[in-house]
Amino acid sequence: MKLLAIIPAYNEQDCIVETIRELDRVAPDVDILVINDGSTDGTGDLCRREGYNFLDLPVNVGLSSGFQAGMKYADRQGYDCAIQFDADGQHRPEYIKPLLEAMEQSGADIVIGSRFVTKKKDVSARMAGSALISFLIRLTTGKRLSDPTSGMRMYNRRAMAEFVKRYDFGPEPDTLANLIRKGFKVVEVQVEMRDRETGESYLSFSKSIMYMARAFVSILIVQWLR
């Protein structure tokens, strides 16, 4: 299938080149689109210098809007599926093939690269938040997801279409919950991820707190109003 890797990038000049080189080396059949989300460092200049296929957003619009732009591109260019892939090197490209195979074999609309299908979560505040989100999704949809906050997700054309036509959809757990309730099939595949070593995360500590709070409210309340 024709697959596009959408790589949101905000101030990732220290890691974007190595990330794309590894992706090209390990998964050469996967097309790449970098979303330079209003970076204030040299990310955009690197994309131009290296000749990457990229969207150069003039201001920082955030992960959801940036990813949605990538999904619109994938839809208009006729891709069969798209995968969200981190610019910071945390996601490992050798797992793209198993995710694609799982999508083809199971008929899933969305496949999540999960860290916790066969492994237990660490004891930490972040993992406690992940467990709470898993509980809320199961409470509202009946579906158990072990790693709903994983950013490594693959979407087929049916799922891509939702991001194209809906302004309020982002690559977030509440969107997963909403799509599951609408009958979309979601499966998980065990993957390993690396720790971020350089670059600037979308989620600072304060943003992480707000992220969890928004997810809680959206899954329990907002999704029912969509």
Automatic annotation (TrEMBL):
**Which Gene3D superfamilies would you find in this protein's record?**
Spore Coat Polysaccharide Biosynthesis Protein SpsA, Chain A (3.90.550.10)
The UniProt record lists the Glycosyltransferase 2-like domain at 6-160
Please name the SUPFAM superfamilies in this protein's record. Answer: Nucleotide-diphospho-sugar transferases (SSF53448)
Q: Does the keyword Nucleotide-binding apply?
A: no
User: By its UniProt entry, which InterPro entries does this protein fall under?
Assistant: Glyco_trans_2-like, Glycosyltransferase_2, Nucleotide-diphossugar_trans
Q: Which UniProt keywords apply?
A: Transferase
A GO term, aspect molecular function: transferase activity
**Which Pfam families did the record assign?**
Glycos_transf_2
- Tell me its family: Belongs to the glycosyltransferase 2 family.
Q: Which PANTHER family match?
A: RFBJ PROTEIN, UNDECAPRENYL-PHOSPHATE 4-DEOXY-4-FORMAMIDO-L-ARABINOSE TRANSFERASE-RELATED
What is the official name of this protein in its record?
Glycosyl transferase
Q: What is the lineage of its organism?
A: Bacteria, Bacillati, Actinomycetota, Coriobacteriia, Eggerthellales
